[in-house]
Amino acid sequence: MTPEEWQALSLSLSVALRSVAMVLPPGILLAWLLARRRFWGRPILDALVHLPLVVPPVVVGWALLMVLGIRGPIGAPLHDWFGIRLVFTTEGAALATAVMSLPLVIRSVRLSLEAVDRGLEQAAATLGAGPIDRFWSITLPLMAPGVLAGAITAFAAGLGEFGAVITFAGNVPGETQTLPLAIYAATQSPGGEAIAGRLAGISFGLALAGLLAAEALHRALSARIGRA
Amino acid sequence: MTLSVAIGHRFPGGVALDIGFTAPPGVTVLFGPSGAGKSSALLAVAGLLKPDRGRVVLDGVALHALAPSRRRCGVVFQDARLFPHLTVLANLRFGLVRAPRDAAGPSLEDVAALLGLDGLLGRRPHTLSGGEAQRVALGRALLSRPRLLLMDEPLAALDAPRRAEILPFLERLVATARLPVLYVTHALDEADRLADHLVLIDAGRVVAEGPPEALAARTDLPLLATRRDAGVLLRATIAAHDPPRGLSRIAVGDQVLTVPLRPEPLGAVLRLRLRARDVAVATENPQGLAAHSVLQATLAGIAPVGPDEVFLTLQAGSVTLLARTPRHAVSALELTEGRRLWALVRVGALDHGGA
Asked: Cβ–Cβ of A124/B84 closer than 8 Å?
């Protein structure tokens, strides 16, 4: 492999890892809201978080560009006041990837949250644990299998995010050119078939390993809490 | 250590709950059929059910104003509700480490010894039997340094051998804990063995409350009187053992009864249920009867049970008995209140709880 190919691979891993870190806190919070709370507009929120599944990724990238671009309603103050720029940066690529994987994470977390026995939380309350204590000591450990499975799936899917990344963060080698973008670039240049083939093989292997790891971890964790 | 409870609640289905009682120190058993509202009342005391209106006051502390996690009610549920991701030891310590530092109570070692948990501490909940899990749940509640213990049919999910295994632990626990205990059950034998104070609940209301002996002797409480095992509760002292004949003598008030040989030592005090259908009456002193204790008694009351039977309330010295008799016997034997009778108590008719 050439240094450029290594660069694309390590960048892909870095972007996917950062995107998982970005998506987990809001993913768990949204899953909790959707699973546990009844509030006005819940169906709308539910539909909104699932949009990235059905909207073309390019459109998601475009929407991010509109909102977080240097002239966007959030992007402008970020840039002018704090000097933070997301477009055409690695952070931007990670953010676009995170938004795309949000529905995956919410789905997985929500399923595991709904499987948590509320009676155990009640028991914890009678033993003196307040709401936040209960979440950390009971709810989160019991839904950990779903959180981990969601994170690994998001990571594996994040390695391959194309449309949203290229639209929002561009195709900058070493900055935002992840594996799929590098494959795309290779196929566009004469004599790039061998490079594209190698990178495609790596993508395939990573995705498969990710899915298998998710399944194995889920099983191991479930067994630990006696739900095997 | 007095707990007073007043709860009013209307469930979405239209079922209404209006329950008020005062629990003296000791074990208060809420007894009634399934769906009567006794578990809901218990959950409201714990704060796990938010009633439309509710007052729960323990020794001047208004528990109803506190969040469930601050009420310090140790709750034992029908299902043990052990935390599956924690070991038995971590389950036991869960409430202990969250209890106020100045709250006194038994140590983990004491509780483990009392409930026979020493061999289980490293295990995970899904490897425990139902009885073991329930013992751990008892210990966990006790170790949270509770102000009172609430038990919601803790034995209902167990089979008969497991129940028999846990009941002695429970008796020891409530005797040593010195805490007010609210105990919900629809099993009369549990009420017989544990209750210091009995609250009868039916259709969302308190039907009667008082000492279990007093309620058992009443014929106007269908919840108790229409049962096959209706009868009086007697506080008995083991007076003599006669192993060659397989008999024991027990003193009840100023009377003495003969029963099959009891395992308890001389002087032990136990509460026995004498079923009304195991007591017969005769107008003359019967002779040559095997397997019966005969007591002289005065007929104190006649009350109908169903279409063709009556309860006779008999006063034998200081002891009140109930006898269940066919209705025609009342006219055939010219039974009237104040009449001198002999009560025939079948030996072996006495139940220690349901054991």
From this structure: no
